[in-house]
Amino acid sequence: MNGYQVTFFTQQDRRHHGKPLADWLVHLAGELGLRGATVIPACEGIGHHHRIHSAHFFELADQPLSVVMAMTSDEADRLFDRLRADGVHLFYVKTPVEFGVIGDDNGNGSGNDSGNAAKS
What we know:
Layout: E1 2-11, E2 15-16, E3 19-20, H1 21-31, E4 38-41, E5 44-46, E6 52-54, E7 64-71, H2 73-85, E8 91-98
Antiparallel strand pairs: 1-7, 1-8, 2-3, 4-7, 5-6
């Protein structure tokens, strides 16, 4: 299947509607029926204001986070429409990709591995 990989960049202490922004994005992905979202913590990063953000031993509030999602073009349109409607200010990267599932739904990898993208 063709679509996009969208990666949002934020940090642990950013909030939207009272929830951590990364968590809110994951729940939004579920609400919109997207295939999933993965939150990836980072040790350190530099933001658009050229400020270093990092996770410290006692304080993780400034820890950089990425939220990664794979979606179709229509799903991306719905996601970005919702983000605009909610007034979310967030840096992202949107890359064209091919995506799918390999193996069977039982998780044992014994399904058809012919390279065809799985049906959704």
